[in-house]
Specification:
By secondary structure, the protein is mainly beta. The protein contains two helices and 35 strands. It has helices at about 55-60, 415-420; strands at about 10, 25, 40-45, 65-70, 80, 90-95, 95, 120, 135-140, 150-155, 160-170, 175-180, 185, 190-195, 195-210, 215-230, 240-255, 260-275, 280-300, 305-330, 335-355, 360-375, 380-395, 400-410, 420-425, 425-430, 440-450, 455-475, 480-500, 505-520, 530-540, 545-550, 570-580, 585-590, 610-620. It has a 22-stranded antiparallel barrel. A hairpin with a 3-residue loop joins β29 (about 480-500) and β30. The protein is globular and about 75 Å long. The two termini are about 35 Å apart. Mean pLDDT is about 90; it is low at about 1-35.
Length: about 625
């Protein structure tokens, strides 16, 4: 929730690993109200990377070091941060937490990425200040935009995809509308991918000034239909889709002149999931739920120290999942039905203080959470957790900074992990009411080195020890359920080099690797293979060129629900021309070499699309 207080707009966004690189025009409210520590490992989306497939916001997030795709893929593509996935990552849109109870993890795929103008990712143990489901990181997305009216559209070759966006902001009023439609993609080997969809999403926001504070009212609705669920079993063994999906995000926020913010929000969602496993069963799951919440955040000065404190309220009400399906036996079809009704309440108080001792900057954060889950199918479950984080930034010289980040975190089992029973695109899922909360102790060391005005280097090493790690596994009877593992570990390294050459060229080289295992030395799921990437941006007068070259190494050590994968190279590029001061056109080519590859290591992941060409134009008024 907290990163909505960091609403920013700039001519372009940079991947900022320390304060020297964070050149951002803050709209409202002030950046000083951000509660997260250790900003030297935060990263921002870059709108100059126009080569992305841009199917969902996940395609843009994977351009950041440490972020990767996980799960089966398609329109509901989920993502992982440094090997943390599913309920361990918090996703927010304009500060509203997105909780969808999908087993692969929450995502913001129901919103057209063209409406999300800013993106920010927090990595490192300090992300635990955001509470449960943030122990692995936070993805904060914002629809804030600068004063302008813009019409944009694109067409794509491989799936006959069409995208149209209208955005308008003048003074205190913002409106936007986006329409997306695409048919099924083809893989390079001519396999048909179940990726068709149609979606309309919009935005209305109004700000008004009062004596002593600013009030902001916003509504972000979305409607989708005929959404294919990409899966390696399609179409021979299984066909899965989402016939209809409805989302509505509303929010009222008050921002005080004396550095305080208060807000109330509501997220309503209603969607259906249909799965047919040929000659086995035909099932339909219907989901609806309300996410309600509020927050107060205040900046104060305590004995000369800049501090923040806040209160969070997050409530899940009317969460209902109905599963109806027909199971085929030797002689007939047998109807089965299950229904989950549950709710959850989470109250938290937290604070952070910042001080400087000599040349060293320190941050100390504390957060206490109280959580209760209630359901007709089980007894009430209640828990309380206190977590802490400590961060320090030591300037070794005028050009080199060394960062330390240490913190504890936790995540409570989701409602579906504890209580859901029914058929999904992945198979029969049976919840485990006896699951205990996960806890973690994480540490990170980062280095930022500004070699010169043209060259900068960033690197980070991290390690997490986890207790009661929640693991999904397949039983001997063939259904999927969850268990707590005694202990698990996740470690990794990421590095990035930026080289600004001659004022017209910018090169970004990055590398990442992750490892993780449980008590029995079994590799954990959703760890990203080693990857080396090179991105080049070139600008000449009215022409811009971007190029992305990514090499993913082969993987022969995988998790229990993953498959070994060969190495592959993906090459994307785009060219943009500024026709006039107000209009631009661009051409993007994705998967230039027509490489055959999978989006993740998941055993059910489908192949990614074949080479495609996208034509786009944008006009400002």
């Amino acid at each position: 929730m907290i990163l909505s207080f960091l609403c920013a707009s700039a001519p372009f966004l940079v991947n900022a690993h320390d304060e020297k690189l964070e050149v951002i025009e803050v709209l409202a409210p002030k950046e000083s109200l951000a509660i997260a520590s250790a900003n030297h490992t935060s990263a921002y989306l870059d709108e100059r990377f126009t080569f992305s497939l841009n199917r969902t916001i996940a395609d843009q997030l994977t351009n950041l070091s440490g972020v990767s795709l996980n799960g089966q893929g398609g329109q509901f593509q989920s993502y992982a941060i440094r090997g943390f996935s599913r309920g361990r990552i918090r996703t927010e849109i304009d500060g509203i937490p997105i909780i969808t109870d999908r087993r692969a993890g929450n995502s913001a795929s129901f919103i057209a990425p063209s409406l999300l103008n800013l993106g920010h990712v927090i990595k490192g143990p300090s992300s635990a200040l955001y509470g449960s489901q943030a122990m692995g990181g936070v993805v904060s997305l914002s629809s804030e935009m600068s004063n302008q009216t813009q019409v944009a559209g694109s067409v794509q070759s491989n799936n006959q995809g069409v995208n149209f966006t209208f955005k308008h902001q003048k003074n205190d009023f913002t409106s936007a509308l986006a329409y997306q439609h695409a048919n099924n993609d083809l893989a390079p080997n001519d396999d048909v991918l179940n990726t068709q969809f149609e979606r309309a999403s919009g935005l209305v926001r109004y700000k008004t000034q009062h004596q002593g504070f600013t009030a902001t009212y916003s509504w972000l609705p979305s409607y989708g239909k005929s959404i294919g669920k990409s899966n390696i079993k399609y179409p021979i063994e299984q066909i899965s889709d989402y016939p209809e999906e409805i989302h509505s995000l509303t929010q009222v926020q008050l921002t005080g002149e004396e550095n305080w913010v208060a807000k109330l929000y509501h997220h309503y969602q209603n969607w259906d999931s249909r799965t047919t496993r040929l000659e086995r069963y035909d099932g339909l799951s219907q989901y609806q739920g309300h996410t309600l919440g509020g927050q107060w955040l205040q900046q104060v000065t305590v004995q000369g120290l800049e501090s923040h404190w806040g209160i969070d309220w997050l409530s899940r009400k009317g969460v209902k999942i109905t599963s109806d399906y027909l199971v085929a036996d030797e002689f007939e079809l047998s109807p089965l039905s299950n229904e989950m009704n549950a709710e959850e309440d989470n109250f938290a108080v937290y604070g952070k203080t910042h001080w400087q001792w000599g040349r060293v900057d320190f941050d100390l954060g504390l957060r206490y959470d109280w959580i209760r889950q209630q359901s007709e199918q089980s007894e009430d479950a209640t828990d309380g957790r206190l977590n802490a984080s400590f961060a320090a930034m030591l300037p070794l010289s005028e050009t080199v900074g060394l960062g330390l980040d240490i913190g504890t975190g936790f995540r409570y089992p989701t409602l579906s992990e504890r209580l859901f029973y029914g058929q999904t695109p992945r198979g029969l899922i049976v919840g485990n009411q006896a699951l205990d909360p996960e806890t973690s102790v994480g540490s990170q060391v980062s280095l930022n080195w500004h070699v010169s005005d043209e060259v900068s280097v960033y690197g980070a090493i991290y390690h997490y020890d986890l207790d009661n790690y929640i693991d999904r596994y397949e039983t001997e009877l063939g259904y999927l359920t969850y268990q707590n593992l005694n202990t698990a570990q996740i470690s990794g390294f990421e590095a990035e080099l930026r080289w600004y050459a001659g004022g017209r060229f910018e090169h970004i080289f990055s590398y990442q690797q992750q490892s993780g295992e449980d008590t029995h030395q079994q590799r954990l799921d959703d760890l990203h293979p080693r990857e080396l990437s090179w991105t080049m941006l070139v600008h000449f007068d009215n022409w811009s060129f971007s190029n992305a070259y990514r090499h993913t190494f082969n993987t022969d050590d995988v998790g229990g629900s993953e498959l070994e994968r060969d190495a592959f190279i993906v090459w994307d590029m785009s060219v943009e021309h500024q026709l006039t001061e107000k209009q631009s056109v661009s051409v993007a080519i994705n998967n230039l070499t027509d490489e055959t590859y999978y989006g993740s290591l998941d055993e059910d992941a489908a192949l990614q699309p074949e080479r495609s060409v996208k034509l786009s134009t944008s006009i400002q008024f």
